[in-house]
Amino acid sequence: MTTRLVIMGRQGAGKGTQCVQLASHYGIPHISTGDMLRAAVADGTELGLQAKAIMDAGGLVNDEIMNGIVTERLAQPDAQPGFILDGYPRTAPQADYLDGVLSDTEGLDAAVDLDVPIPVVTERMKARGRSDDTDEGIARRLDLYEQETAPLIAWFIERDLLVTVPGEGLEDEVFDRLVAAIEGREAA
Ligand code: AMP
Predict the structure, then answer these.
(1) For 30-63, how does the pLDDT look when each residue is reduced to its tens digit (9 = 90+)?
(2) Whose CA is nearest to atom 8 of ligand 1?
(3) Model confidence over 121-139: pLDDT tens digits?
(4) How remote is the CA of residue 6 from the centroid of ligand 1, in Å?
(5) What is the distance between the alpha carbons of residues 135 and 90, in angstroms, rounded to a whole number?
(6) Quick check: CB of 66 below 6 Å from ligand 1?
(7) Model-level pTM?
(8) 130 C-beta neighbours (distance < 10 Å), count
(9) Is residue 142 within 6 Å of ligand 1 at its C-beta?
(10) CATH architecture of 3-182
(11) What are the residue boundaries of the structural domains of the chain, listed by start?
């Protein structure tokens, strides 16, 4: 059995925490393209040097680079039983590309949208007090997310892959909801 998942959700929705739990529950890697890019920046690789300015400006690294990184990562042995992709795909061309990469397999099992309303994530981000969590910074990132994500939601709905899971509540409750939603799809 494989479990191939994409997780979506606004910053502050609790995706990171839930992905760690899901990865351990299913025995599959949590593949966060943001984490991979931050590691490249920290290591000072050529990719890191290219990505840093774009990330600092809150922009998107180009699709070709991202598709290359993800293809390599998904070819690793640990990703053969499945994976949770976090932060990718982020554009329609990335979604189409992923479709192609997975064409020799049964494809994705689900794209899970961990849904937490804008006012709630705004309060959570303000409370964590990171230096980029100014009112303006938070609003800008949330705006960008809406713009980036809306077309992807439509893309996943068209392929009958989208499941929306309410992300408010205790961490364990949200986790149980996520597993129930994923397994509900697998049983269908
Ligand atoms: P994240 O941790 O997912 O919010 O990603 C941090 C930053 O990395 C983003 O703001 C983008 O600049 C870049 N990034 C991560 N994933 C992607 C992607 N799939 N496509 C383009 N840029 C990405």
Answers:
(1) 999 999 999 999 999 999 999 999 888 878 899 9
(2) 34
(3) 999 989 987 777 888 888 9
(4) 14
(5) 24
(6) yes
(7) 0.93
(8) 10
(9) no
(10) 3-Layer(aba) Sandwich (3.40)
(11) 3-182
